[in-house]
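REVIEWER CHECKLIST
Item 1: Sequence provided? yes
Item 2: Single chain? yes
Item 3: Sequence as submitted:
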Amino acid sequence: MSVELGVLCTIIGVAIGYLGYRRNGNKDIQEDAKTIAFISTKLDYISNGVADIKADMRAQDKKISDLSDKVIRIEESTKSAHKRLDTIEKEGV
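Item 4: Structure as written out by the authors:
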């Protein structure tokens, strides 16, 4: 009878161990899924932020290019004005 009791306890112990293993395995899978979803959400947020920064950079580049063109035109206008002033000074003296 003690052999049968030992075998029965062993079978019950194996069954409890297996059920505990499956339960913990499912919890691990659920925690991993939550972690992956969280990381995916954060990556999407970062990706959108990078896209916004790129758009801002393009707008800044356009503004800088426009200002550069204006400076070039102003410098040309200034040179022309200096030439006219030089001409007026030479005629006036």
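Item 5: Key structural point noted by reviewer: Residues 36 and 42 are 10 Å apart (CA to CA).
Item 6: Recommendation: ____
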